[in-house]
Amino acid sequence: MNKNKSKKLMKTNFLCGILLFTTGIMLEYGATLPDALSVDILNADAMNLSFMEVDTSYEKKEKVVEQKKEETVTPVPMQNVIDTSWGWPTSLNYGITTQYHSGHPAIDIIVYDGNYNIYSASSGVVVTDTYKWDGGNYLVIQQDNGYYALYCHLSDKTVGLNQRVEKGQIIGHMGSTGLSTGVHLHYSIWDGYPYHGSSSVNPWIFY
Ligand SMILES: [Zn+2]
Hints:
- This protein has 207 residues and is an alpha+beta fold.
- It folds into 2 domains: 1-74; 94-206, Distorted Sandwich (Glucose Permease (Domain IIA)).
- The protein has one helix spanning 3-71; strands spanning 94-98, 107-111, 117-119, 124-132, 136-143, 148-157, 164-165, 170-174, 185-190, 200-201.
- Strands 1, 2, 3, 4, 5, 6, 7, 8, 9 and 10 form a 10-stranded antiparallel sheet that branches.
- The site of zinc ion has 5 residues, from loops.
- Residues 98, 104, 106, 108, 186 line the site of zinc ion.
């Protein structure tokens, strides 16, 4: 091998070396670039996933709160509760002198404590406020529950015609007016306006 040939071979080897080196770098970059991209995509997916996970947990929390709301019983304000119970029309220190029967469509009530207040058994409106020879001073109250209450022999009345009354409100005082032999309340309940094609109801079924 002469010197010229040797130099040429070295040159060729050198150039080939540079070419290989450059290719290596290019390949290196070529290999790194997709890797870097794929990492970015993975990161992006991971970010999306974690974002979705956050969203899901948020929805779950909302659902739990909604379920709790459904399970909670909302208290009804007392003024909106319809009171269907009946109040006793006299003092609670009372006695019964005549019970309800076919010839007496009422109960006669006396009191022992001197409290002669008459209380409306239920809320309603006064539809009759008058005097009659047998019932004496009497009131008819058309109650909100659909029944009519008749209070007879009152000494006086504290409510008047068309007046609205509430359960427990004092409507008058026990007396002996009309066809009566002593101070008592003739308390009578009807399913329509009393003695006008209606039927009396035994008051005891409400107590
Ligand atoms: Zn009576």
